[in-house]
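Input record (Table S2, row 439):
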Amino acid sequence: MPKKYYIETYGCQMNVADSEVVASVLSDAGYAPAGSIGEADIILVNTCSIRENAEQRVWGRLDLFRAQKKKRPQVIVGVLGCMAERLKEKLLESDKMVDMVVGPDAYRDLPMLVETAVSGHAAVNVLLSREETYADISPVRLESNGVSAFISIMRGCNNMCAYCVVPYVRGAERSRDPETIVQEAREVFEQGYREVTLLGQNVNSYSWAGSTPIGFAGLLEMVASVDPGLRVRYSTSHPKDLSDDVLEVMAGHDNICRHIHLPVQSGSSSVLKRMNRKYTREWYLDRITSINRILPGCALSTDIIAGFCGETEEEHQETLSLMREVGFDFAYMFKYSERPGTKASRHMKDDVPDEVKTRRLNEIIALQNELSSVSKKADIGRILEVLVEGPAKKPIGAMMGRTSGNKVVVFQASDVRPGEYVQVKVTRATSATLIGNLV
Ligand code: SAH
Ligand code: SF4
Ligand code: F3S
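Output record (iron/sulfur cluster complex):
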């Protein structure tokens, strides 16, 4: 009887992809997925350190796992990913009864680490690698809708944004062999998937030095050429590196989704400088102009941080004005959270009072709600191509899918299947979705 593992995932899409690598490594070693925590012999939590509250959530989960361990002492609890990397032995020394601590570049070692833990020894591997990309590992798609798959194209980050913990917990940037990426895209297409999202912290700096060197534009072209019926998305673009050649490749392939996630962080050049983002407000707006020229109608989303070190009221206003100027379709918005070890924590003061951060964040959220609503209303009356993902949560009997611009569309249909492309005429919009009818 193979031992059963249960894995819970927090953090970004890259962590979702990593958990699929973990599942693959464990399956190859003879372990099987458990249906629930109660059934699992090994409980794993793949963690995120990006903000303090992300870590708090995981500490809370560890309390629950400890309760399991008290009931069933033979259960192995493992902390994986970014928090494992950042907190290392602290996790083992805590009172949380953690048996295994495994950093993001050590997943091939998991079977061995599990054996160590079973024998009653602390199992730790938090070594970061300069080469590991898990290129040859075929991820086991967990909790997948069978339609969209994540493909990791690179790991780590070299950018050193002042607020960000990622370079410390994920290590140096390295790109994955393009042949293995294209191969994985072909495989998922053959399995019936119809959408792949290419993942990296800064996909625009993808670089493979083979006999013919390949950058991100070249890679995008290769993946888009797998099949015109395979939608291609990517995330995340860094504004300093998003070049027109990528936009031209997008324009040349209808199956590359008309959506760019371009985190701006702040609309103020002085804040961007303190953040070490290496672009200005003007540079960012110039990238938006290029996108609108080369890809008219392309959806735009962003990430924004409220209340970074030294942020003045004027600087905050510049963020609001940039948001209006661009008219983002969607945004992830955060309060600045100081992370130990980062440049900002070592050299800058986290001096914006919490209530000011909260107020600024609320202003940013309120404005984005307006902008998102304008963006959705603009779609009313349009006929949009939708890739069907599955049944909608509500109403009963309705189906849901996504547009090329990444908007969720809900519509009534009895005979469409996940993975089909349908044309939907949008009739109205709620705060989160478009509602329409098949045409
Ligand atoms: N590589 C991506 C971002 C990855 S982290 C990029 O460069 O855009 C995702 C988002 O979390 C970031 O875009 C940023 O908005 C937010 N973030 C990162 N560190 C943060 C911190 N210390 N406090 C608050 N938000 C943070
Ligand atoms: Fe963090 Fe900046 Fe790297 Fe993004 S580009 S992961 S924000 S250091
Ligand atoms: Fe979090 Fe690590 Fe991703 S810190 S955002 S899980 S790279």
